[in-house]
Design goal:
By secondary structure, the protein is mainly alpha-helical. It has 19 helices and 8 strands. Strand 2 and strand 3 form a beta hairpin.
Length: about 450
């Protein structure tokens, strides 16, 4: 333990810097002291050099003594914290190797069952963090040795790779949450990610489909995908809930689907519209799932289902991407999830009360619905405000309201009792009323039918 200089075989200096070697609590350290060797170097450090050399030796000695004092103070503080934890918890701290970070995360309990795909994605982030630390800081062997500086270096490397804010935040929150949970039990005195700030996300929301796009989707969907698209159009359910729809969730007698949503666990109650009822009744009951082939594909998580959805949208000539300069990849603006946005936008634009919309979608708050799913186009937005605001403000005449499905049903009940002339008169009046309907009213009528 003490000062050292590095020499080549011939005795010449291999480095111009002083080095120090010391051991604290069994842990050996060998560091560059950052003090340059000056003057005439003697054959051995036991001999005295000239004044310039001895001055540099003195500076190096002072630097080494300071490092040893700091190391002892830090070890003492950590020792006291360890003793305090052991007194309070009644158990010893466990030092976890950095090499076991993925397995340590996998061993943490989870509120919900993790999918293999999710575990693989999270472990990939943990592995890349471990490899970063091993490459940049090879002396770090334990999780407790990871410092705030190392955490900041890793986050800067994510910036350099150009990750989008959402991806950056996901990776940071994974590591921050991990170190929070393992805490003192793994010898971590302070979370190295404490104080790290999330990036502000410029969220790109899914856009609703137009009526024409919905028609093109059904036209180009094959026999396997068409029923799933119809479920999404008529129920606003997420893709996973559509694919995994079970017979015990479908009440054909009462005409309702009752589903506990996979994402939030909220109970959603959805009326069974005729077009969806017809599609479900055609399915053979050969499994607990209404669409067993699609359910098996979704559960395998082999991306075959996502590929099929993209192929349908491509065949329907629907633009699904939006260029985002601040992202590595273009943002998806239209996909299967857009069916949910479409349903909510059409329902709210047609005047369906928010409470009924939330009952169908399973959302717990109004804010989520309005922020993420209500995306009317400019024309639909104008018509919705035109109906809601007084005509004094809009300058429009009072809009005629027509409940088309109920009008047709009412006509069907009395058609046999009407004379031919009366029937012609009522049908003609109904046709004229339909001709006066706005596009949003027609869209709502199609959805209700």
């Amino acid at each position: 333990m003490g000062l050292e200089i590095q020499r080549a075989k011939g005795g010449t200096l291999r480095s111009k810097w002083w080095y120090g070697r010391f051991t604290i609590n069994g842990q050996a350290s060998y560091v560059n002291l950052g003090v340059e060797i000056s003057g005439r170097v003697p054959d051995t450090l036991r001999d005295r050099g000239n004044d310039a050399f001895e001055l540099s030796r003195m500076k190096a000695t002072v630097k080494l003594d300071g490092l040893i004092l700091n190391a002892k103070s830090r070890k003492t503080a950590e020792h006291h914290l360890t003793e305090l934890y052991e007194i309070k918890a009644g158990e010893s701290l466990e030092q976890v190797p950095l090499s076991e970070i993925e397995q340590c995360w996998l061993n943490l309990p989870s509120r919900r069952k993790r999918t293999k795909l999710w575990e693989s994605s999270q472990c990939s982030t943990l592995r890349k963090f471990r490899e970063f630390v091993e490459h940049r800081h090879p002396a770090v062997k334990m999780l407790a040795q990871i410092t705030s500086r190392i955490a900041q270096e890793w986050l800067r490397s994510l910036d350099d790779k150009g990750y989008a804010p959402a991806t950056y935040n996901d990776k940071m929150h994974l590591l921050k949450g991990f170190f929070d949970r393992v805490g003192y039990e793994c010898g971590i005195i302070r979370n190295p990610f404490a104080g790290c700030l999330s990036k502000i996300k410029a969220t790109v929301h899914h856009q609703p489909f137009t009526q024409d796009e919905l028609n093109r989707i059904l036209k180009h969907a094959d026999d396997l995908m068409r029923p799933v698209f119809i479920v999404g159009m008529c129920t606003a359910m997420r893709q996973g809930d559509c694919c995994l729809l079970q017979w015990n969730q479908v009440d054909l007698l009462e005409g309702f689907i009752t589903v506990k949503t996979s994402k939030t666990g909220e109970l959603a109650e959805i009326p069974l519209f005729p077009v969806l009822r017809d599609e479900i009744e055609k399915q053979p009951r050969k499994s607990e799932y209404v669409f067993p082939e699609v359910a098996a594909m979704y559960l395998r998580k082999n991306f075959g289902l996502s590929w099929r959805v993209k192929q349908v949208l491509k065949a329907a000539k629907i633009e699904t991407k939006q260029v985002c300069p601040d992202r590595l990849q273009d943002a998806t603006i239209k996909g299967f999830h857009s069916l949910r946005t479409t349903w909510i936008t059409m329902a709210l634009s047609a005047g369906v009360p928010m409470e009924l919309v939330r009952r169908v979608t399973g959302h717990s708050t109004v804010e989520v619905v309005l922020k993420h799913y209500f995306r009317p186009g400019r024309e639909a937005f104008r018509l919705a405000l035109g109906k809601a605001l007084p005509k004094l403000i809009t300058g429009a005449e009072e809009e005629e309201r027509l409940d088309l499905p109920n009008e047709v049903l009412a006509l069907g009940k009395v058609v046999r009792s009407l004379k031919h002339e009366e029937l012609i008169e009522k049908v003609d009046a109904l046709a004229k009323a339909v001709a006066r309907m706005t596009k949003s009213q027609k869209d709502a009528a199609v959805l209700a039918a």
